[in-house]
């Protein structure tokens, strides 16, 4: 369903489980960034009614995710500390068309959001299937379901504003690029991406 070109090695779940505190911190920042990028989309494309209507509730949902992960950290006495540089997201952003039309910018941003949601969903699935603690399996299962819905929302928004063919063509380019980016770094024991 997600069309991702590089499946995550299922063994990553066991490694991640051993360094759960790092995974939780990284996950918390991912949720915070998801909320922030939704706000930024709303500000940049405030004239696009459908986008504003659909993305506004998403801010609340992603912020809720952030709080859920923070709570889990608090229970375990893990501090949030400072964010790290997000090489995965930065490289995806560098792939955006330079000096592009507003329409192209909208497309690239929606597809980037869709792709990050899709990859997060795929990684949460691996964690939900591969961790040994039933509580954590359920924890990641819920995130997996939620991020799958966000992936669909961003894809639908792209097709709402741009011709389907154009969206599909650019989506293929994004999928290829994401595969190349991920191939340069192994699934990290401390990171979601
Ligand atoms: Fe989320
Ligand atoms: Fe999401």
For the structure shown, list the relevant keywords:
globular; 75% helix; mainly alpha; binds fe (ii) ion; 193 residues; Ferritin; 7 helices
Task: Provide an overview of this structure.
This protein is mainly alpha-helical. The protein has a single domain (18-79, 99-184), classed as Up-down Bundle (Ferritin), CATH 1.20.1260.10. The chain has helices at residues 12-18, 20-44, 49-75, 87-94, 102-130, 134-161, 164-184. α3 packs antiparallel against α6.
Layout of helices and strands:
Elements (H helix, E strand, L loop, with lengths): L11 H7 L1 H25 L4 H27 L11 H8 L7 H29 L3 H28 L2 H21 L9
Helix pairs in contact: 1-5, 2-3, 3-6, 5-6, 5-7
The site of one fe (ii) ion (FE2) has 6 residues, from helix 2, helix 3 and helix 6.
């Amino acid at each position: 369903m997600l069309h991702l070109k590089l499946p995550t090695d299922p063994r990553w779940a066991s490694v991640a489980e051993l360094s759960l505190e790092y995974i939780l911190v990284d996950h918390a920042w991912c949720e915070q960034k998801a909320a922030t990028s939704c706000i930024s989309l709303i500000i940049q494309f405030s004239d696009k009614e459908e986008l504003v209507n659909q993305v506004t509730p998403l801010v609340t949902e992603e912020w809720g995710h952030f709080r859920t992960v923070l709570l889990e950290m608090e229970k375990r006495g893990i501090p949030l500390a400072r964010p790290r540089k997000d090489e995965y997201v930065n490289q995806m952003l560098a792939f955006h068309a330079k000096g592009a039309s507003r329409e192209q910018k909208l497309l690239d941003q929606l597809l980037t959001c869709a792709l990050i949601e899709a990859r997060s969903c795929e990684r949460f699935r691996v964690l939900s299937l591969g961790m040994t603690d039933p509580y954590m399996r359920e924890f990641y299962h819920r995130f997996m379901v939620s991020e799958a819905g966000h992936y669909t929302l961003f894809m639908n928004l792209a097709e709402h504003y741009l011709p389907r063919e154009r969206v599909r063509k650019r989506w293929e380019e994004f999928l290829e690029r994401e595969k190349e980016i991920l191939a340069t770094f192994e699934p990290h024991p401390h990171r979601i991406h």
